[in-house]
């Protein structure tokens, strides 16, 4: 697939100029800049941080290695970090998620395609795994910056991570340097892991302490996702975490907004772009009633579908029932379903048997997690099943039953594959948390142990606060007497830590 | 713009073969056939009519001239008419609305691009007005069919019309033949009218009675839209209607479904494809609370927007209030609006002053009617206003105030321009009414005067009935006692004519 | 039951004073006046008509015989008619529906319980059928008023009717007078019909032309309900209607508001007062998806129930599906239902078999029509069934299955029996139509034939208009150009007659 | 007010019989038993616990002193505790909240009013404060039970508390015994505190160690509410807590269900019973968007009101906006509001100035907290304000502005005062937590320190699980592979502790 999506990669890497980058096509920069301008209007949190901190530049001196989907929204994040004084190098955290025009706009910056003056980005849509890890490695090579500054450093002093790949590379690199060797791949190791080992083996051949130096220079990492956070907690538990970490994922303004309201928007968007099938009147089944499932169910009901929900957790199941949804197993109603949505974060939620039991041309969509939420492997090896491409990311699977199902995005996240992911406004919340976490860790990294922290509730509330004006929300202010009565400061924070919102 | 959208037009018109057509590219037929198969699954009304009437072929002998958007859904309609025994020739009723792959699939039929074996279609996306009217004229030339059948007829015996262009051409052609001359265009006549006059002038030069014969052969027309119906009522009122007409537009299963549920689907779809702006939390203003406005408001609320409505009719205004919406004038809240939607069917609903008063980068969308719902002419002539194309059908208008607005589809219907129009399931309702109307008029045309009729309620109910199974709906049956108690037949119709649903 | 609800009836009928009335207890007047004041605030339509016509008194000279539930809302109607110049005599149209404090307040008027100075009312909660028809007869005896005015008339010159009892009495009285005799009751005649015959037989014994004179003096009747309207159309069809009639029921501001929005309010209200059962999370089944069913389903969904709908009309069934409800037969899901609501207007919708199939302690509620929507007669004669009163209007029926069901209001309209009927704001719409119809018929009765008319759309729109301010609705005004463009007057009416809203 | 609500108190206290009680009227027992039977059907959690533990009787030997609103739902709780083997004595925790028929039914038990055989209850609607604390004291006097058992104990070994009054009495009694004296009331002490001091002074005069013994016998307390929990955390923090405590309030199945879904039900119920004002079309303002506010807003929107929300916490404010509500200050829209609801838990949320600014006859309702959410004291002392009782719990306050407002339940919780509080199904969740907490603490009290605990998540999930069948919910079961994949046991618990639901 890398080949298929490949455009001419436009690069300036290894050239005499000190400005390195590798993106698809700098000619896309103008189109990308249009998108950025529109996105800025939808990302009031980031723009407010630029206004608040643009003069004081709390990130002056920060060298941030960023590994996060190189989209339009991330572009606004990058330029916010720069506006706050940081130097930045960036790669994407997924081989397909780069929006090439956004990458181009960031590289060009306030220059031109001929004389780019922006930020070094190493990302394009449709990288191979080899390319992906080469790009990730590039965000840790700050020799050009060191040379330009006449300073003596190897890499970044901060990481901004999504999924933990960048953090993992540093930790594994250091580990193998300490061991003096990169192990051979074991039988059964994934292709991707072999690629990582190759990168680190090549590095070790050149330097015995590159990653050790990199690790020692880093003050901290701020992590975006559940998966990355999970890795961090494991490292911290095992005493192996090399720097402090802030868990951005569990800020209320991240997890309760991104998941619920983001999916509410992007699920019907993806369904519509993929199939043009009327949602109204249809039977839609949503696997899982966590935040993602709640957003999915609300969106489908809002379009007039009859929504049925499945759950394994009795508390979430009871919530679904109290919200008016039928709650049952997928097996019990499999033959009635027109639109089947999985949003659980588990695997094999939709099995081949389920697919065989669906109505003819039922639509199957994953908004939860990896493609293994749906047993795509089982489907691909099913005797007599045939895959017909209707259009990119939309495939009719003709089944031995004589019926077909429509599988979106090959079982991967369809809100990314068939739509454009979370809208800017939602990402502004997530990314404002990222910026505040970067500021905090960069300024006070020495106050933090090598543990995983969440942002204090007051900053979480601040992120929310930065998004109110854009929606015309007027906040009520507590009087001193009222604040005293409920035992909180007038300016917040307002809730105990276990408050559930 | 004709040029811009033009692909190689692939034609077989005027060639020795008796099979004429003119479409963009027959190589698109396979892609089109994929779309048709999916659409058939979403158009149970048409497929049920094929099942019910496929053997008896009530349209055997019918020669239908069709003028209606040449889309995937229309393709399913055309093949349904053919399955019921009709011969068909088809043109689109809009220069932009043809989906070229659907047109190709219809022409190819069960043949191949090299040996097409389908239906004569004369339509492609991006016709010039001259091409458009030439195509329309082609659907009235049945000489090839007459010759093949060894029969003596000039044109069709039925029209299936959308907007009334086909019907108008016949009436004007006959009128000018009776007058013996086509009048010169008057000062101020539109370009399109001059094109029509040209077509008819050329015809008159060849034959003094072609359209008179055509008119006399036609048993009736079935008309899809409000605008076309309006023209028909005027012709009937003036005693000039040359054949019977059925007003399909005012079937309940057309007007109450197409408008409300169609827009509920396609408005957010269009907004999302155009802008990727989060709808949740935004202030959305909907001008008009008729069926279109009701669908628009429901869709926006279903996505978490705060919806404000304007109305001129106090009954509709009271409905909006009782449905929980704020109802006020556009002027009163113009500065608070993020998304401005017009769905009224009137002109100048959104004025230049309104546009100047909107928030920066507010989105402006028309789902009502012609582009004059928004004063686009006024905007285009506004001193200091600048138009920047973000992408096709999405333009930023930079205003002298320093703010911008995003205008979708250049002020035209954005559910067609930015999305793909009404989904198949909705169109299956409309088109099942069309098929039943064609069957009725073709079988019993002699029983009808040269007036405009609506379908009897029993057929309206039948259309609904044909769409229930697909949604898993089980209908309850009246007992004889119950039917007698409320004074209706067990099998319907169930309501008095003025029942409002 | 008459006995049970009876309070001391406080009367001044047949006494020397010219002020006649018969109500439960004038001491309730103050409590009633409180309720009236609150209701006036919720009935802006009526209050606006007082303001508009209070000086010109278009009903001066009108003598109105009113037969309509003697509730708080009707009290505001009565005082509006009086404010517009009318003389009024009033009875209820249902033996149970009188609110005694409202009746008392109307009788007392601006006087005191000792010296009442209001309007003659003949109504109390819990009348026997004999009392009911005696009260109805009283509203046609205007001898006191004639005597006071020194005028020569027998009865009213207008009727305001609900259900048609008052109109029927006049027509039957005249018919028997013409025949010279009141027929004997036939085998199988209902008790109520025998009571009516008795009243008319007694009248005929006293006067041979009383009802003939009454009929000749009446200019017209305005009728509130479907049932009454149905009787009027039959009389008109048979050429027997003795005066003009206005069908108030089919004004949009009556039927589309009263039915839908009234039930949306009063169904959950009645359920809650009757049972205190949590609606959220429950399976609620609504029989019928007309306006009543639409309101019921919306209310139940709004409380978090899962709503299933049944329909016999495929169009309404399709609407229900498109609105996101499961649509199936009652039989198909009878064992899953917690709350069973009937709103059809038909009989035997809920059979004994259905009741036997319900879950233990399922709630059964009728908001449609007479108590025969539920087969109460069948239930009452079911062997082994036992009725236990939980509280008034709430009965547990213990069934031979060992399960019980909770039947509300003995199968009668539970929004009246368990709640307080339609709220004032809804009734203000209905009653404003009544007042406008009275004004129209009284002023222009001679222009009307002995037929049934609906109010012109402009008056329907006016009724809506009168209710907008109270809800803070600001209406948009058409420009002259816009009105011309769509072919309507600036001030309305705005829609064609068959527009469905 | 104690006088006003007082019925004949029917008691057997201090009589020779060992069965003590004090309730309003045992003749109400049959009516109460009807209510209990209906409630049992709505409390599947409690009934399931009876089925699960009825044989093993894990509470055998437990002596529970209960202080919690003596309602129908509590009656089902009490009989559940008894079914599990416990002995119980009960008082209400509020002078007004007892439902006398429920209290009577519990006392009568399976006996008769003449020979009651149930549980000792000391509660009636409308107690004075003196009576209230005397009743509370009675639940700690287990001399009759000790005597009957021939055992040597003073009081209970468990407390089930709501608000903490029972727990406070024990702690204060012990404290004063240790000090050897009960202090005099200080200037400014409330009347209620003086009553408490009086009770303890009388006790100390009789025994120097009664409460010390009581405290030492108690293994633990389970506490229902936020307020009571707050007191417990303070005692634990100060090292003064005398036994272990389980915080039932913060179980998810308590706080997220009771608050949100309970209010969603009871707010419109209370509004309707109080005023009969149509909610549809009205402007409703909800102060606070916590769980209570969320439920209130959803209920009002579900009835067709336009809902505006105020918030002090920016996160909750952003949630409200994303859910489609206008969010602003009360001051900004005070003149537009028809229905004003406060659900914050703070004081002076609605000030006298707000009341003066409301529309005429706007409805003011508190569902949050104490009556000081509304400045009732300020209103009562406002010069020129007049209070008119429309009916009990509904008062028109005529204001110096010439306008009036309708204040429900004198500013106290209107869902209790005007409706009947939370429905049984919601309380079944809360009370199943109580029962599980009692079982846990009674069985394993020695494993707990004198701290405050929450129930383990698995028990929280169990409570939810017990309520699924009644709603027809079918739960999905994880496979072993799936459970392993996400790192949870197949049978739960399924979520990390900070999961927000």
TrEMBL record, chains A, B, C, D:
Residues 259-421 form the S-adenosyl-L-homocysteine hydrolase NAD binding domain. Its EC number is 3.13.2.1. Binds 1 NAD(+) per subunit. Pathway: Amino-acid biosynthesis; L-homocysteine biosynthesis; L-homocysteine from S-adenosyl-L-homocysteine: step 1/1. NAD(+) binds at residues 225-227, 259, 288-295, 311, 316, 346, 415, 422. Pfam families: AdoHcyase, AdoHcyase_NAD. GO terms for biological process: L-homocysteine biosynthetic process; one-carbon metabolic process; S-adenosylmethionine cycle. Substrate binds at residues 71, 162, 224, 254, 258. It is an enzyme of class 3 (hydrolase). It is found in: Cytoplasm. InterPro entries: Adenosylhomocyst_ase-like_sf (IPR042172), Adenosylhomocysteinase-like (IPR000043), Ado_hCys_hydrolase_NAD-bd (IPR015878), NAD(P)-bd_dom_sf (IPR036291), S-Ado-L-homoCys_hydrolase_CS (IPR020082). Keywords: Cytoplasm, Hydrolase, NAD, One-carbon metabolism. HAMAP family: AdoHcyase (MF_00563). Belongs to the adenosylhomocysteinase family. This is Adenosylhomocysteinase. It comes from Homoserinimonas aerilata.
